[in-house]
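Because discrete structure vocabularies remain unfamiliar, we first show an illustrative case, written as a sequence plus integers encoding its fold.
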Amino acid sequence: MTRAYRRPADYTAAALIHLRDKPVVLDFHGHPSAVHRLLHGRPGPDGFHVRGYVEEGTTTTPYDLLASNGVSRHDLAITALRHPRGRTGATGDLAARYAHHRDRLREKLRRRGVDPAEITAWAWRS
């Protein structure tokens, strides 16, 4: 935090001003409603798309838990693609392909009871 924003509330307000025209996808390690409460009443909260822990259903694997909560890498990409500012076109098709791929992975892991190697062996490429 910079010296100008000593309190978290000041920092949050400043961030909202600077991000007003940019979409933000936030994967919060907790309940999304906590972030929504912070954003309520401040300028520009419509650009924030918060995902996080949702208490419902059962899960079988780590990836299944992420997908159930809408925070798998596929879900976050889908959210980002569905909320572009000033961009349209192929983003909808790409989001649909990611959703289809996520659903196929979940079907596979539920049949086998383990996450596919595509998930467990995945690594950032340099």
About this structure: Strands lie at 24-27, 48-51.
